[in-house]
Amino acid sequence: MTTRTSDSGPRRRALLAATALAAVGVGAGVGVAQPKAVAAPAARRVRLTLPAPTGPYPVGTVSHRLVDHGRPDPWVASRPSRELMVSVRYPARDVERYPRAAQLSPGEAAGFDRLNSFGGVPRGSVDWAATRTFAHQGAPPARARRGAARPVVLYSSGVGDPRSLGTTLTDELASRGYVVVCVDHTYDASAVEFPDGRIETSRLPEEYERAEREGTVVELLRKTCAVRVADLRFVLDQLPAIAPTPFAIGAFGQSAGGFAALQAMHDDRRIAAAANLDGVLAYVQEDQDPGPLSTVAADGVDRPVLLLGKDGNDHHTVPSWGALWEHSSGPRLDLTLLGSGHATYTDATSMLPRIAARLGLPKEMVTGAIGTVAPKRAVAVQRAYVPAFFDRELRHRDDAGLLDGPSARYPEVRFVG
Known about the structure:
Number of helices: 10
Distance between the termini: 26 Å
CATH class: Alpha Beta
GO molecular function, one term: 1-alkyl-2-acetylglycerophosphocholine esterase activity
Pfam families: PAF-AH_p_II
Keywords: Hydrolase, Lipid degradation, Lipid metabolism
Protein name: Dienelactone hydrolase
GO biological process, one term: lipid catabolic process
């Protein structure tokens, strides 16, 4: 996700502009230097909560380590196989006996504290490991009605972000009957913890620094997206082992995760619909730059697409979105959440205002990341429109007619024609 801070100046936005990479010092969100601070005592650190999901089902979760023995790790040459961690969110039952899962394990929390996309938040000031999700670890899955299969949706976060930074929306979908597979992209995410306790941290700060020196930033952007798409397609291969057999599969993500979701749909016909939450679809460092385009933008797709942009981003203003719009033959929907920022479509919407209030951080740090839209309204919009899109395209039902045009219930949402 992209953040802005008062001392960073105009930020370049790119595929890599999804996180504050502390070692670099340039780029949109890439290299926002984190203020140095001695870790506060645990009792004095900010503790955070997330909004409870609103669907009819309680939520369960399990995590899996997946190993692609046919693919050496593209970021670490010494690793002969690509390893991923995924979390599966699903409708559950009898959850009272099962603890609520942490948003981040202690190892992941330590990595996120060192290298996170919340530029301007002093290190050691937030107890990232204390946040609990509303998903219950290991709870038994709810029985599908008459044994019917459930739709499965893949989720990919922004560059540098852990898979859990989209918890509010992924838990919401699970509470509404979806199985959601949240993917950590190893050596891209701030920190990934494996079952044996091994923690692998992001290699992107040094990769980006080298690419800037060598003039190969575009090549790095291409590689980053290609790795993510290969990860998602491998997870698709593993669905029979980690999730119930779906009757339909979707994908969505924020920033680079949205790019990867649409590109994966372009490359793999198993994905029936995809939603892109403010992810540019070109290998550029500004959303408004015209190219080079990804193949999903250059070719278009013949299946349903949702573009949900920050205020100012739509298919008229973002050339890669315009190319996708022009070249696609499938259903297309372009929505703008007025007053939103790039990070609005992550848990930053709930977290950053609380952190800033507790630490006395400038308002501009918050609005630079999540915009000026009221956080509760931003969460409500996402919970309404993203499930409505997948309901229509995967379940073939449109109970509320929410996607037909502007709604008085959500005046913040603009339909872009």
